Amino acid sequence: MPKKAKKIWKQVDQYFSDALIAPGEGFDSALEENRKANLPSIDVTALQGKFLELLVRATRTRRVLEIGTLGGYSTLWLARALPDDGLVVTLELESHHAAVAKKNLEAAGLADRVELRIGRAADTLAALVNERAAPFDFIFIDADKSGYPEYLRWSIELSHPGTLIIADNVVRDGEVIDPASPDPNIQGVRRFTELIAVEPRLSTTVLQTVGMKGYDGFAISVVL
Ligand code: SAH
Ligand code: DHB
Ligand code: MG
Fold first, then answer.
1. Out of 79, 141, 188, 196, which could bridge 167 as a Cys pair, Cβ 3.0 to 4.6 Å?
2. From 3.40.50.150, 3.90.1200.10, 3.30.70.980, 2.30.30.240, which CATH number describes the 3-223 domain?
């Protein structure tokens, strides 16, 4: 991507973040904690976090499932959008990431709405189905991209008609269009796309995004 384009994406992202996210409204201190704990800075951007918040509010969601917690930055935006009796179930492989997330959620006063489950998402998703967990109204897929095809299957199983399923990072600087990519992340997203394309229970679009974190995109599906 040309350097000049990247620079303007970043500046415009900063401009709208500053204009539209009031001081204290964002979760900057969580990002600071993540940095101190050496977590990779691959969280959603502030404007993307607010996009998730808006969608959760607009759909009157009560139950959110998140696959891939990291330090809980996206979890915070999702949890804030819920009514008092709402719940986010968030799944994370790394106990270190989960510990940082727990601290961030507690600091924001949102920990009581969040259930953090540690383990491979393939296992924790199977456990949720086994427990006959109530269906989720909103599902955010953001863990290892090679697992997306599997996470999609579980997500459909844990959904109801009207559930929104959002998958992060489906564009990856445009690498997604390379069928010969040796990157398992790209192959995961391509397989995910193929599954969605033939899945009669879903209606899907993709929204390409640019900003602080470069060029990427969300797949947005509704369960029919
Ligand atoms: N949603 C977060 C970012 C998540 S980054 C945010 O926007 O703030 C992806 C996370 O998925 C990482 O913390 C990584 O440890 C976790 N992850 C990777 N493989 C996983 C797996 N198999 N099961 C569960 N989590 C996994
Ligand atoms: C990566 C993962 C993410 O969830 C993201 O938003 C950006 C990058 C990664 O694994 O590189
Ligand atoms: Mg992501």
1. 141
2. 3.40.50.150
Using most ligand atoms within 8 A of CB, pick from 47, 92, 169, 183 the residue to mutate for ligand 2. Answer: 169
- The DSSP result for 170-211, as a single string, is SSGGGGGG-TT---HHHHHHHHHHHHHHT-TTEEEEEEEEEE
Q: What is the pLDDT of residues 35-46, one digit of tens each?
A: 999 999 999 999
Task: Tell me the CA–centroid distance for residue 67 and ligand 1, in Å.
Answer: 7
Q: State the DSSP code for 160.
A: -
- Choose one of 34, 41, 42 to mutate for the ligand 2 pocket test, by most ligand atoms within 8 angstroms of C-beta: 42
